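FW: tagging you since you asked about this chain on Friday. Here's the raw sequence from the shared folder, copied in full. Didn't touch anything.
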Amino acid sequence: MGGDLAVLRGRGCLGERARDAARTALREETPFVETARALGRGLGTFHADLAGALGAHPQTGRQLSTMAQDARRTLAEQWSEVAERFDEEEQAEIGEVVDTLEMELREADEPQMLQHIHGDLDLTRLHGVQEAGGTRWIVSEQGGMVEHALPLRDVVTVLISLADAVMERVEEAPDASVNYARWYDDASRAVLAGYRSSDADAAGVDSVFFRAGMLSEAFDLFARWGGRWVFRPSMLIQTES
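HL: got it, structure written out here
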């Protein structure tokens, strides 16, 4: 037997979008760390609720092998498309990171957990609900859901969405006094810290698949923003615990 599961969130989805909150902080040149930590925890709670209600299961060996091959190919293709836009020193530094990730992907042997996730998540689908203790961030199910997928996929798209908001602000105010790379580094680390503090299985965001996914998406973002790079040096180290 089969059916559809509907999750009602009441008035919550009428709250402020996380992207708007990030843009306000960037415009006012204020830290985003506490909000980012709450965003990460909210996303982790969402994943934990889905896993608890609908189940989660580990990949098969074949699924793991296929995923590793796909991740290596995607990373190599994305890097080849943008490498020439970096100077010689940057090419050497980032190329070394790419080579290391490709090696780790070849050796990856720890199955990842699969479950329901949103699958099309960005900061516009995270909404704040005002409560007595402050703002609670919840996920709008609009645009989802995806079965048998990696939770890290949602985390990657949220962090890339945050980077996109930063790049948008860089375009608007390139001479602002805020250090955009540091702002993003602090905020992205806080998102990950919040996620790890939730009930979600956080092993995925500490895996090589998360790092490879982030770097692949970062290369794509770099190309879309005309060769601007908010991740140096933060992007290369942001996944460390």
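FW: Strands lie at 56-58, 113-117, 126-131, 134-139, 146-149.
HL: agreed, and The longest helix spans residues 33-54.
FW: great, closing this out.
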